Amino acid sequence: MSSPEEETANTISSRESSFFSLTSGNSVYFSAKDSLNASEDGGGEKSSRSPDSTPVAQRKHQLNFTSSLGDGEDESSITGSDVPSAASSATLEEAESMTSFSDAGDYCSNGNGSMDDLNPIKRSPSTSSVEVRKGISRLCSTIANSDSFDMSKKKEIEEALASKDLRSLRKLAMSTGGLLSNGLREHTWSLLLGISSKELSKKLDTNFKMEYPDVTEQVQNLVRLDVARVLKRFPPGLSDPQQDHLQTVLSNLIYAVLQKNPQAYYYQGFHDISLTFLLVASVESNPYLAFMCLNKMIETNLGPHMEKTMDTTHEMIHTIYAIIEQENEKLYRKIVIEAKCPVAFCLPWVLTWFSHTLPDDSDVFRLYDYMLGSQKSTNPPHLIPIFVSAALVLRNSRQILQDKSLTDIASMHQALAKLPSELKSLEPWLEESTELMREYRGKETSLMIRGRKIKDLQHNLWNDETNNNQRRRAPVRRDNLLIYTSRLLFVRHRWTTISLLVMMTAYFLQSRYRRPIFQIELIRNAVDNYAPTPMRRFLQFVIEDEQSD
Amino acid sequence: MSYAYLFKYIIIGDTGVGKSCLLLQFTDKRFQPVHDLTIGVEFGARMITIDGKQIKLQIWDTAGQEAFRSITRSYYRGAAGALLVYDITRRDTFNHLTTWLEDARQHSNSNMVIMLIGNKSDLESRREVKKEEGEVFAREHGLIFMETSAKTAANVEEAFINTAKEIYEKIQEGVFDINNEANGIKIGPQHSPTSPSSPSGGPGSSPGSGCC
């Protein structure tokens, strides 16, 4: 228990056992972060604890519990992952700073009785719960290693991380393969979102609470239902207790984020985003990092989706049609005007950054690398997933244009919605997205305005369809000339017809009888009764003229 | 595949009541205990036979969360049938029916046939809403009612097909104008529009069962 390595293992475990109670025994990933934070962590800051934080005795208990975990740690659990050379360089100071994480966590786990009830594992840590957490961390670290693991790129990323070179990190995140592994992602993502390590350590004690009085029971129920349905995205091979555990952590994470952002309304799909960050943060069992990232995400990217209704989002995603219109008008006409397809096909893409749609989680992580790396490529950053979605539709334009069956909403919606699952490789698509964003840099506002207009236009198209159909219901048979003509004469232009008839009768009578008095009486009678005003005036003029003769 | 009519359906109701599972059971005849969450709208289709006629059901499955309603509403427009689903093990999903119903009636055509469905009837031990309550609600609001289980497939076929029968009868009676696509009914590409308002053999008196 005396070697620095073991110290680290212990402290990590203590943190994880308490904060959201996500634990792993896997210490190796920790070191990279430590080398990052060591300079800024300033352990002293963390002394300001909330008054009702856990009694010291309990913390001790947890430390003891995790010590035993450290002792029992098996070397085999570390195999197969990238082991940074700094693994053994963790110092006692870092260890102390880590203990403070557990303080906040203790507070959190005790603050919410109901969640405790839901999570028996948390209350009575046993060997099996340790296994649960170990397994989760191990699986999280293995699920998302890029196929083309590039050692030189890995080194580049590590160097950029160490020097906090944001420009290089952005470039590396966007370029082929992204950030390679979840171990590297963990800290890069928070940096790309603009969270400083100082912020990470500071906010921990001052602002973080683990009671959720502002999260209504209704929302908690909704989150619970949603979280129960994300199993598909969990790392393969998790046991039942592991799944239960991860689900509880995920729910707690979401409540905490909602509590922190009272203006934000939870939407279905936010849990997918949360899970992505949690899985990456789980490599080091550091859900706090996920918490920070999600707060930042709401601030910078997800704000419009977290309003009370999806109206803003609905309007905003029409920008995809504005982009398509600019890039490929034929495609635009086919989707928007001919098929009249509503934009909802890309709603899950935008709301979850494709994490709800892409079948493979390692692709999801890669895509998040890209989107987090391109935060500065477009303004506002909310448009990034929309540009990426537009690029996906555009690169399939030939296929869509050639398919003659795509004529109505249903077939078009279906064809577009399945595009992500047909992807073979992400890289060419992402390159095209980069191009697209570069092309429209500075023109985002006009695109959004055009998008809004397209929304109205499509709305009118639907209304026209309904109205046209209703008009067609009237028994107008244009093929029957007689009916058509008589309708035209006696309904539509009845005054003209009557006037003409009157004039013709008058002319006939005049030429037949040559009796002006009769003729004038007749005409006057007709004029007074039937003719429209201009006609009446004209005829009166004729009559007076006649009489003066 | 050729069809005589195409009926457009929507499935609405609170989140987690089993809308997507009902659709999956109907279209694919399988059940997923943990079904993916629906964000926005999803879509399914199946062919059925009524009165010897092939009818294609085009079914739009909508997200349950209220926030999405402004988006899913545009799919209500032009639906001939709606399945309004609640979960018999969750009282709140039953309590929300009135809002769903108002919303559906407001944004769709007045002739739309609405079927009220109490899903998860296999979970008898956890039942919170009595069958009679569903019946009463349906009677009060002029809906057809059925309890189903997407898990055991009980009544799932019937729910979709009875709705279709009702629509078919309304066509025969001339209530629905089939030339107006905004009513959610389309005549198949191979079928010339015969006059539906003067039925020759009375309304679908011997409707067949589902295909396959």
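qc> Confidence is low (pLDDT under 50) at residues 193-212 of chain B.
qc> done
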